[in-house]
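Encode chain A's predicted structure.
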Amino acid sequence: MPDKKIKAVLFDLGETLLNFGKFNTTQLFRQGARLSYDFLKSCGQPVGSFNYYCWRNLIALRLRHWLSNITRKDFNALLLLRGIGTKKGIRLDRQQWRHFAWLWYEPLSKVAKAEDDTKETLTKLKESGIKLGIVSNTFVHSSSLEKHLEQLSILDFFTVRLYSYEFDFRKPDSRIFKTAAERIGEMLENIMFVGDQINMDVKAAARIGMRAVLKAAYTNAGKKTPKGAWKINNLAELPELIKKINADTSH
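Encoded structure for chain A:
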């Protein structure tokens, strides 16, 4: 009889590990534009007027985001913004460009909240021998996301981290789940996927044989949990849920 115990957990990022909630996109964008603009100015770079800088980048990002929804392939926002800046004569080194990308993301990072006991929950999972990873659909550069996770003291829990802009596919495409399984070194049936999106996360993970868990969030409020999946209100419920599932599979 095959071993179907859960040996690894993969998490979605937004509204799962990090709760952003509903926010004013334009307001946060302008805050990021101001921070990055002031940084470029302090470095003596040719930035021009703030309003032109802000709208040029906003239009470019929105256009690429629209295209990514058509092609189902995410883009690297750092490369896009760097390309725009380079054409205008902006010259920065690798570390400065990463800091520049962080300044765009920083206002959003301040909106995000992690559950108070997230670190404790991840510690319990790791100490029980569970491998942990992240699979996220995103155009935000990994350096910004991982700086954010580091600030929350949880980055090192995740030995595997997949961001969709690094691939030619994204969730719910089965290839990103299978790639994550290969990297974390476990069979699909031994992996639990936790996410907030019913179609992108839960149904897609279950379809290829993973155990799927729906994390309660505003994105799935009032929607039914798909058949065969579990639902949790808080990440703190995971250690006991996994213990129960693993006990049931051993009978």
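The first strand starts at residue 8 and ends at 11.
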